[in-house]
Design brief:
Elements lengths: L2 H4 L13 E3 L13 H17 L8 H4 L5 E4 L3 E6 L2 E6 L4 E5 L1 H9 L1 E5 H12 L3 H18 L2 E3 L3
Amino acid sequence: MSRDTANKELFIPADLRPEARPFLQTSAPLDPDASHAEIERQARQVLAEWKRAGLLEAGSRSLTNPWPCIFERSSDVVWTAFEDECVLLHLGATACYSLNSAAAEFWKLCDGHKRAEQVLAEVCNVFDAPEGVVREDLRALLAQFLQEGLVVERTN
């Protein structure tokens, strides 16, 4: 199956999906032969991290319906654009991230003034892509940005 056929329904091919990728991995990937206890331990660790990041709080709109919310870049993050990509440095976590062009576009639009639904429309326009496909990619990217503390929901 050709790459075009395999990814025809995707806004962004799987290998180019938007993501915030830390240069330094904070935890080792799960071993395919890991015991049930090890899988459970790592799952609890991830859930605890998500809870600390506010992603599992009751009433949090960030994952269930982020579209009416306004998000802004964290003041703990410094960044620069390079060609169509971005490099972020999270000063509080001393972590560095590389964003591909789709994630970089989303990042630039998280300016604290636009609702997520406006950002979604702009990304669809820039990439000339259908909203339904872009919506799920951006929801996942936003969840990752929130988890990493790169963006925050503006409350005022």
